[in-house]
Amino acid sequence: MRSLAELTTLRVGGTPNSIIVATSESEIIEAVSKNPNALILGGGSNIIVSDNFNSHVIKIESIGFENDESACAGAWVTVAAGHNWNDLVASSVANGWTGIEGLAGIPGTVGATPIQNVGAYGQSVSETIAQVRAWNRKTKSVDTLFAADCEFGYRTSIFKKQPDTWVILSVTFQLPLGTMSAPISYNELAAYLKVEIGDRVSTSDLQAAVLELRAGKGMVLDSADHDTWSVGSFFMNPRVAIAPENAPNWPEADGSLKVSAAWLIEQAGFSKGFSLNGRAALSSKHTLAITNRGHATSADIFELADHIVAGVKAKFDIELKPEATYVN
């Protein structure tokens, strides 16, 4: 039996009692109905599983998409939950659909993106999701949740708030037609492309730039590079009423300020590569990723995360929250 360490990007986790591979909606529904307490797993890129895990796993591997396109409505692309996210981004750019090119290189599956409301470089999936089709474990029915029903927020959604209710079957995106990106709103990306905030570039150029930026931070999976043995950004940028002096921050709609978690971590004394035992460490490329240096256990990951949270709390009285989901 394969362990969760073989199925997750952080490469930690125990051996399940069974792994059920579901390749279609009907197989997903059947598997979940027979194993209601099983761990639902897509690409394993945003999850930290205990080494003591020994329950059942349902691995969702449904793939493919359908497009209903018109000049007025754009592309309405319905994508199976198990479809590789980065493959969808590449297809979008190739087909002249816009709105997700800034999310290139993010590992995982399409079905996971609404749960976390995945975002990067000024784009979030909530901006293009039209509806989500999901199996309701409680009512034993298929629900269609429109974007307004999904309670999207910063790295959250109704699916994350109620993890025991729905299993996502497919996601429908409404993507404008074209070959030019949306106006660029992210300073680092604008600087890398040598354009101004608000400028637009071709979707292919923006996709390539994002992939290069992510690779430079160890955020594009590479089995030979331990900096990519992670869940990506481990902590969310916290929201505060008053930002620490000199802290990079961004105003939120509710009047709060979103503060750079990476800056807080660095200013609290944790540099790139920081480690307690050599097995789990901050990335050597940036401080927002906790990485497995080859032989880390889940306990090593949790210990380092807790140590960083405590250090930031002591320095700034701000509590960091994980982006990834803890299991067991």
Could you explain how this protein is built, in words?
The longest helix is centred in the C-terminal third of the chain and has 19 residues, at 298-316. It is globular and about 50 Å long. It is built from eight helices and 17 strands. It starts with 17 loop residues before the first strand and ends with a strand. It folds into three domains: 4-60, Uridine Diphospho-n-acetylenolpyruvylglucosamine Reductase, domain 2 (2-Layer Sandwich), CATH 3.30.43.10; 65-175, Uridine Diphospho-n-acetylenolpyruvylglucosamine Reductase, domain 3 (2-Layer Sandwich), CATH 3.30.465.10; 226-327, UDP-N-acetylenolpyruvoylglucosamine reductase, C-terminal domain (Uridine Diphospho-n-acetylenolpyruvylglucosamine Reductase, domain 1), CATH 3.90.78.10. A hairpin with a 4-residue loop joins strand 9 (129-136) and strand 10. It has a five-stranded antiparallel beta sheet with strand order 5-6-11-9-10. Strands 1-4-2 form a three-stranded parallel beta sheet, with helices on one face. A three-stranded antiparallel beta sheet has the order 12-14-13. It is α+β, with helices and mostly antiparallel strands. The chain has helices spanning 25-34, 85-95, 113-116, 158-161, 187-193, 203-216, 261-267, 298-316, and strands at 18-22, 39-41, 47-49, 56-60, 65-70, 74-80, 119-120, 123-124, 129-136, 141-146, 166-175, 239-240, 249-251, 257-259, 280-282, 290-292, 325-327.
